[in-house]
Each structure stands twice: as C-alpha cells, then as structure tokens.
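Session log. Operator J.P. requested a structure for one protein chain; no other inputs attached. Running the standard single-chain path with token output.
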Amino acid sequence: MKKIILAAIALLVLSSSAFAAEKIVLGVTPFPAKEIADGAKEVLAKQGYELDIKEFTDFVQPNFALEDKSLDANFFQHVTYMENFNADKGTHLVNAGAIHYEPMGIYAGKSDSLENIADGAVIAVPNDPTNEGRSLLLLQELGLITLKEDAGLEATPNDIADNPKNLEFQEMEAAMLPQTIDEVDFSIINSNYALDAGLNPMTDALATEDPESDAAQAYANIIAIKEGNENNEAIKALVAALQSDEVREFIETTYNGSVVPMF
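Structure written below.
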C-alpha cells in the first residue's frame, strides 16, 4: 500500500512539473513600460508562460542586469540608447522587437512661452548622449537653435552652430528632470518620466516630437535581450505578446497619443 501511495505522489509531482509555467523575467521602468507589460501577462499565460516583472528606476541597471543574465529581457529603452550603451559599457545586447514610441516633450518651468523665449533662458536636458542629442534636435525643429550638419543623433551643445537666443543648457540625469522643472526655464523630458511625474505629454508639453518623423524609428522603445537569445522561444512569445492586438488596444485607449504603438 505504501508503495502505491509513493508512486501516486511521484506521478503527481511529475505531472505538476510538466504543466508548470515557464517564467520570463522582464526588467522595466514604471511608466509606461510596466503598465504595457502588465497588459501582456494574460496573453503569455494562455501560452504557458509566467511573466515576472522587475521594476527599475534608472536607465543603467536594467542593462547590466540583462548582461549578467539576471533578466531574460528588458523593456525601457530605444534602440539608439541601447547601441550606445553597448559601445560605452561593453555589453552585448540586441533588439528583439519594437513596441512603442514616446514623443519627447518640452515643458514649462520658470517660463511658459516658446514664442517669447527670453535671451539666455536655461533649458534642462538629459545628460545621456542619445537623449541629449534628441532634445537638441527637438529645439532645432522648433527653430530655436541650428546644429552643425554632421551633428547627428548624438549632438551636444558643442555642436550648436547658431544659438540666437543664447540658450543655456543644464545637463542632468533623465529621471531628475521632472523633479527640477521649477528650477529652470524649460525642461525637455522623456515621456516615461513625464508620465511617472503626472505630466501628460499631449496636454502639458509646450511642444513634442513629430510621431511621423525619423525620430519615431530611431527612438522606438524595444525589447532588449542578451545577444545569442534571438531564437529563444520564450523571447519570441514575449515579443509576440507585447505586439498583440490586446496590447495595441491598451496603448491606444490608455495613453491617447502620449505613447504610440510601433507594430
């Protein structure tokens, strides 16, 4: 009798193991990546995957965690940032698929008019190379500065060819920009940090990037993975879930243009 009971227990354990969901560990920043990832959980569950979401509050640690395999994937950055991170830090991360685009915006601080911007106005910009270049390109689109022809996506204030308003630039970590908005005339803020701070890029920003511009491709937020995992079935399932009709509908109805699907 004891042997029969032990055999039954062993069979039950094996059966449970066979049907246990495979876990995918995904690193995200809070807004909007975590919300979007939450929307993909049910899609993945139907395919036998458990999505374990780990939150980060900066743009650096989730890439190191991916490099050391603490994460299976991360979802917070655009491809241009990732490529620069690889070059600077020696990481080996690749793009598994584009999910959405967050138009960068310029927000009022001490000043509230771009039409009557004061001479010497101070503008806070992200201090990482790609997002600083992106902010300067936005100012060029607005006609406030002119960059050198070869400045490219990694432009810095040193690449400004014409600055008729003598604008000054305060460089700081992207996450700090919403917290210091009242200390400068204007701040150029990534939409994820703007949303996290309660700012609506569609109604609070004085101006934003054109979603139809080349920037929408260069700055599309992606699923990043460790090189060599491109054919991993769990990763393919994760990307498919985040590019599903359910997630598209969630993005479009939740963010009303502040976040734009790229699939």
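Operator note: Residues 2-18 form the longest helix (17 residues).
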